[in-house]
């Protein structure tokens, strides 16, 4: 397997907000430094700058941007703002932050202008194919009903991973990530063996008593 991409979504969990976000990010940063693994943390906009200043071995992603550029757009999160705060990528259309296709398209364009890596989430193969046509760097397939649960996409829907991969085959350079319910090294292994380029994970790491141990075991499982 070639250097899988591990993306850890901090969401708005209290265990991963503000100072706690920094504490968790530093633990993950240490692991990234030692292992040289490709790891991103997906954080709230208010935490991007602090984490990017203190964690130099991670990619920092914003959880969302709005489809507006710089200017008079009070309350919006722009590609420019997340980039200049230290983010190197963005997540779009998470099932907890769904967007219209036209907004996804414009946000991808704005993100690319700022040289941000783009991940667009999709709950099934049809949506994955539709968003892959907008040419993001990654599409992340995550069945909504499995998110935050204990049964992973790898266990419950391995066929969805394979099917989505087939559908994306003609989509230029778009790579597939998978997520939802991933909580064990076996879940990671199955997803990667089926052809995913990486995984998107949240609650298992953020709510773990020992996130370093779990993440390390997951990384070792990919060697
Ligand atoms: O963005 C990742 C996410 O939606 C999966 O969440 O808690 O099921 O790993 P979780």
SSE topology:
Layout: E1 5-9, H1 19-35, E2 38-43, H2 45-54, E3 59-62, H3 79-84, E4 89-92, H4 101-113, E5 117-122, H5 125-132, E6 138-141, H6 153-156, H7 158-168, E7 175-179, H8 185-193, E8 198-201, H9 203-206, H10 211-221
Parallel strand pairs: 1-2, 1-8, 2-3, 3-4, 4-5, 5-6, 6-7, 7-8
Model description:
- The chain has ten helices and eight strands.
- With 223 residues, the protein is of the alpha/beta class.
- Strands 1-2-3-4-5-6-7-8 form an eight-stranded parallel barrel, surrounded by six helices.
- The chain is 42% helix and 17% strand.
- The chain has one domain: Aldolase class I (TIM Barrel), CATH 3.20.20.
- Helix 2 links the parallel strand 2 and strand 3.
- The site of SN-glycerol-3-phosphate (G3P) has 14 residues, from strand 8 and helix 9.
- The site of SN-glycerol-3-phosphate has 14 residues, from strand 8 and helix 9.
Short key terms for the protein model shown above:
8 strands, 223 residues, 10 helices, TIM Barrel, binds SN-glycerol-3-phosphate, 8-stranded parallel beta barrel, 17% strand, alpha/beta
Please give a quick description of this structure.
By secondary structure, the chain is of the alpha/beta class. The protein has ten helices and eight strands. α2 (45-54) links the parallel β2 and β3 (59-62).
Q: What CATH architecture would you give?
A: Alpha-Beta Barrel
CATH class: Alpha Beta
Could you tell me the CATH topology label.
TIM Barrel
Report the portion of residues in β strands. 15-25%
Count of domains: 1
CATH level-4 homologous superfamily: Aldolase class I
- The level of helicity is 40-55%
Main sheet record: 8 strands, parallel, barrel
Rg calc: 16 Å
The number of helical elements comes to 10
H and E string: EHEHEHEHEHEHHEHEHH
Contiguous runs where pLDDT drops below 50 for at least 5 residues: none
Q: What would the average pLDDT be, to the nearest integer? A: 96
Going across the biggest sheet, name each strand in turn.
Answer: 1-2-3-4-5-6-7-8
Shape: globular
Structural class: alpha/beta
Total strands: 8
Q: Which small molecules are bound?
A: SN-glycerol-3-phosphate
How far apart are the termini? 7 Å
